[in-house]
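Journal club side-thread
Mid-discussion, someone asked how the predicted structure for our own chain would compare to the paper's figures. Pasting it here so we can look after the session.
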Amino acid sequence: MEAVHTQGVWIAEFLQQQTKDLEHFWLTVTHIGDPKAAFLLVFPFTYFVCKRAGVAVLWVAALSEWFNLVFKWMLFGERPFWWVGESQLFVTTKPQISQFPSTCETGPGSPSGHAMVTAAVWWVVVSSLSSFLYSRTHSWLISAAPYLLYVLLLVAVGISRIFILAHFPHQVVAGSITGFILGILLGRRVPEGRPLLFFLSISAGLLLSALTLNVGLQQLGIDLSWSITLAKKWCSHAEWIRLDTAPFSSLTRDCGALLGLGLCQYWKPGGWSLPWAPRALSLAVSSMVLYHVNRLPLPVNPQGLFYSLVFVKFALVPQIVIVLVPGLVHLFTRKKKKD
């Protein structure tokens, strides 16, 4: 893998030098590809356009990110920003590369979580959109347009991850292919109308199985904190190390979101039926609420409290989008009509 990693570093250097003027664009793209964006941006927008597609987005986002976590623990992938220093291969010829605030992620690098979750989630979106366009236009050309945008998005997210030194090219390719496959497989069965016990079992099962794997690997003498140690060692700015990039953050996010989805279907089976105008209002209000919820500072010590609050925060996300905000909008618009 040494040759693959070395070539990846030179590709990253080439991208940084040749597309330096696009730095802000790549940083924006990498934020769009963040798995959190699937929960906080893609899910609410998709849900208020099509409920089934929205539920599918949340379902696929949580499961694909969980699979990504397991793959990362098993594959021990390096990240460019620490491998350059650890490898001792660039003592005489140092690459002209820079780190960014989004560079210093603390989990292992393979496969890319941004590429994998983006590929899985957006497959659900574009396949639904393509089916809708074909049903209205009966044009294969028009219905193929979303798939072209899908490929362009994956390429852009992949380049952005290489540009900021978060991943090597082969990790991005592996994440995109795996995410594409998961998007097809997981998107076929959307858990609509399932009982709360189903979601509780899935959430608890994912959490316990990941913890069991973690403990099992440690019993075999494998230090799963190795990537955190290297990230802290080689990150150029200590403040760029964030606990929300740690593996257990994604685990609690996924399990919390799935439990929240189950609670939604328990409180309000099928969600609220709203006309287009109230739906647009619900989307705007939900986006604003989620923005502020996401910005709430969480105490990083003790870490158990931090992960518990991440679980609660993302359990609230589907309830805000599916139950609370649409319910308030329905109540307000109904009263207005009566008056």
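Post-session note: Residues 77 and 109 are 4 Å apart (CA to CA).
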